[in-house]
Amino acid sequence: MFKNLEEKEIEYILENNYIGQLGYIFNNTPFVIPITYFFDKEKNAIICYSGDGHKMNAMRKNPTVSMLVSDVENVTNWKSVLVHGKFEQHFGSDAKAYLHKFSLGIKDIILEKEHSKANFISDFSSKIYKDDIPAVFLINIEAITGKKRLDFKA
């Protein structure tokens, strides 16, 4: 049976995961890639960072993006959340503050879910090469939908 997720279920999935699938458009072609994220409930935004490259250039040109986060137990028991929003890059002290919040938030999720301790961003996210300055960005949430499929075998 398929059902819509309630708002509290949507928030739970976003707050308790840190890997999503980012969708963006480049030259009229859709791309979907895995990305590490942190859900900032207070700001109603997704915090991310990246090296400068294809996805950053694409999102600067077309800031409309989406992100899918899924909890999959098996083919008949799953939940997924689809976020629609706008890309917004941050710089300077703003970017540093968001990156700090991102790092602390994901460390807490890893400790809670995986019972392991992450000390550095490189422990849970793509490495930024030594000379690269990470680009910090938000996905300002405009809409969220969530679905679930539950198998009710007795």
What's the quick description here?
The protein has 154 residues and is an alpha+beta fold. The protein contains three helices and eight strands; from the N terminus they run βαββββαββαβ.
Describe what you observe in this structure.
The chain has 154 residues and is α+β, with helices and mostly antiparallel strands. The protein contains 3 helices and 8 strands. The chain has helices spanning 7-15, 54-61, 92-114; strands at 2-4, 19-26, 29-36, 38-40, 45-50, 64-74, 77-90, 135-149. Strands 1, 2, 3, 4, 5, 6, 7 and 8 form an 8-stranded antiparallel sheet that branches. It is globular, with a radius of gyration of 16 Å. The two termini are 14 Å apart.
The helix content is: 25-40%
The helix-strand sequence is EHEEEEHEEHE
Detail the poorly predicted runs: none
From the N-terminal CA to the C-terminal CA, the straight-line distance is 14 Å
